[in-house]
User: Fold these one by one.
Assistant:
Number 1:
Amino acid sequence: MIAPAGTVSFDPPDTWGGPLVDAAVAPPTATSDTIRLPGVEGEARTVVRPALAVLFRVAVGPRADAYVPRFLDYERGGGPRAGWHWPAFLAGPVWAFYRKLWIAGIVFSVLPLGGAFAFSSFGGALDGIGGLWWAVLALAVWFVPAVLPALSAHALVYRRVQGAVAEAETQTKSASKAVERLAQAAPVSLAAAIAFGGGALAVTVAALGPPIRAEHEAHATRDALAASLADVRLVQDAVVSAWRKSGTFAHATHVGALLARGERGAVESVTVSPETGRVRVTFGPSVPGAAGKSILLQAAVDDQQRVSWICVPVDIPSRFLPDGCRR
């Protein structure tokens, strides 16, 4: 039946389900999703094909009641928008592989590794700030890699479903045949979620464990060395005072022996050279990255008889050193 001019009618149930309009409105094709009504402005001018809800529902599979209304809103509004999806936030790779989003699953799997790499490049700048170091670490390797999947989940499923529906309609001659074709393809895979998603999480945890432990050890060592060197500042001041009073360092040699180890127990011994005023700080077993190793604080006297200090680490890797001792 041909609709009167300026009106919209619908095909019989066994056809595409797309609205038929007269020459005043461009007729939809087999794969078109919406039509534009003449004389109506804004979103109300856009009408979604009745059959599209059914096709979307079949293509989505589980939890279609939650997805399809949102997808139809995307159709009316011109495209997907950022939303929030809790399963994707809690286990992005598992969710992506469950929904057969293969590329997204791979990307979500490597995001924590990228976050750990990024953190390793600036984590040293957070030394001495306490809990902030752990907060930034969690932000880099867990929160940000989890937020990205959560915000993009609905759009990713929408694009996959939209493509599946378009392909089914292109390969068939009626809406009912398109539904049958979509029903033959499982929209989700529990096996892929367990095998690929679970495997990705296991690999990520195994891969992140050693570098995080190593970075934590380096962080703790840098903090301990910085605190110990701050305590040794008393010895350095005594050396400078001895130089100013007598022009030698001999009177400062006993100061290092009087320095208490303090509650940390990080400093094993402190000695002062009577000839050069060099302070040697040897660290104890409570500093794993520097146990039994030393830092030399060399006094340098310029032409104006001013004393400055040069930090010389002995066999201590650079990543364990506080900023003042890094070359």
Number 2:
Amino acid sequence: MGGYILRRLALVIPTLIGIMVINFFLTQLVPGGPIDQIAARLQGQGDVFRNIAGGAETQGDTASSSYQGARGLPPEFLDQLEVQFGFARFVCAEGFTGKPSSKAPECVKEPIPMVERFVIMMGHYLTFDFGESYFRSISVVDLVIEKMPVSISLGLWSTLIAYLVSIPLGIRKAVRDGSSFDTWTSGVIIVAYAIPGFLFAILLLVVFAGGSYVQWFPLRGLTSENWDQLSPVAKVLDYFWHIALPVTASLISSFATLTLLTKNSFLDEMRKQYVMTARAKGLTESRVLYGHVFRNAMLIVIAGFPGLFLSVFFGSSLIIETIFSLDGLGRLGFEATVARDYPVIFGTLFVFGLIGLVVGILSDLMYVWVDPRIDFEGRG
């Protein structure tokens, strides 16, 4: 197993670099770079994409006086922005001792090729230096840490509740397969799966958060305004009071897949020969179910926990966060993409990609932990 883990770890770096290469160069092809965004805002045009839709000739990460958003802005200012954001550099004549700028006659602006910018960026990222956001004057690491509580709350509790409800329900449905209980519960979870999360979130707000009916839960935020003044117990209660509706809205559709996966896995195991042999030996149904079937049937369910948590955690629903006024990683990623905030986009992509690859290895270890008969080393 040690050799298998080492091989997987050795593939992490080239895989991560491949992910970054694809996303980096695709992003450069999209019009409306950060220079365009700043120029459009300073000209009072709000969003550079309106200019692009109007037919302006733009490129993803360069700026010139031909941009609609740049008209009227000093060229020196745009040059300084390009250098500040790492898209260009000033090359000065030998012997020049002043401060490099577009105003200095001895200096000229030289664009930095995309390949060189990518190499420079990856050099910083491999030392976990992700730089600062273009528009927030805060480091990418601090920005992610600031948004983390919301994503942890939604991801952790949604995953735990889904497992705590779906696994017992799936086992019960497998034991009573074909009964009325199995039929009506299947109908309920299929209906829940068909309901869009954002529509259910709005329904929860209207019914329980001061809409047309009652106001049992707060309308927005993760904590109350006086949270710092509350006692420890009151803080815990206030926290769960605030996340009750967002978590419910985010996990409404997750029950179906996990419940049916558990049920089908148990049914498949219960039909195997070793179960019939165990029953023939006189073992009780409970001993057969939880002593023999459970380990084999739960292999695929339990081993998939790291991957499921990662998908819920980093795939925070932008719509759920927006509806409940939660400022998490979902909104951060959306705003960074719209604003072309490259340090945030690529920094979070690098970190989340690295975590995803490591979690893939942990998932394999979970398989071995649940069922020691699995031997990835022997398979290799």
Number 3:
Amino acid sequence: MTAYLLRRLLLVIPTLWAIITINFFIVQIAPGGPVDQAIAAIEMGQSSGLPGGGQASGNGHANAGVGMVGDSQYRGARGLDPEVIAEITKRFGFDKPLHERYFDMLWRYARFDFGDSLFQGASVMQLVKSSLPVSVSLGLWSTLIIYLVSIPLGIRKAVKNGSAFDTWSSTIIIIGYAVPSFLFAILLIVFFTGGNYYDWFPLRGLTSANFDTLPWYGKITDYLWHITLPVLATVIGGFATLTMLTKNSFLDEVQKQYVVTARAKGLDENKILYRHVFRNAMLLVIAGFPATFISMFFTGSLLIEVMFSLHGLGLLGYDATLQRDFPVMFGTLYIFTLIGLLLNIISDITYTLVDPRIDFEGRQ
């Protein structure tokens, strides 16, 4: 198993390289790069100089190796002095040749140096660190609740297959699956955040303004108070898939010969179900854990972050895309990909913990 894990860890390197490289060259053909954004801001009178006061790329690293530079005229730059355009291009670091920017990006990313944001006046790592607690909170709590509810419910539905409980529980989870998370979030906001009904929960942020002055138990309570509604809105549609997967996995296993033999020997039904069937049925469920966590961690929480004013990684990456803030775009992409690859490795380890008969090393 050690050799297998070592190979998987080594495989992370070329995978990261391929994803970053492909996206690097795709961005080259995308219009409206950061230099265009800076020129547009100057011409519209929104800035007396460069966005971020030119601080974003003062170390020469802020461009993350990308941008539409070339020799062509920038959009909207006809009314500006060519020397101003040249200075903007140089400050953002886009005066360098394409290959030089590419290899500079690879070298810095290998050292986890993602440079500075072009428009927010802070390093990419600072922005990620400030946004990470929100995304981790939403992703971790949502995934944990979904698994804690869906697995026991799926097992119960398998045991009571065809009963009234199976029918009405399926109806409820399918309705929940059909309700968009943002619509459920709106309902929660209207009913529980001080609208025309109840004022039970806060509408904005992950903590209160006086969070630092609270005792430790007050901090826990305040945190849970703020995270309740965003988590509920995130998990509403997440139960159906995992519950039905668990149910079908158990139904498939209980019909196998080893279960029939165990029952014929007079073994207790709970021992058969949780000692033998559970180990085999959970393999498919565990296989879906990385995808479930990643969807909750990144893509699934974007609208929730917007609606509850939570500054997480999803919102950070979305804003960076709109602003063409390439260092933030590529930095978050790099981190997202790395976390996803590591979660897949953790999933393989969990396989062997659930069923020691699985030997990845022997398959090589």
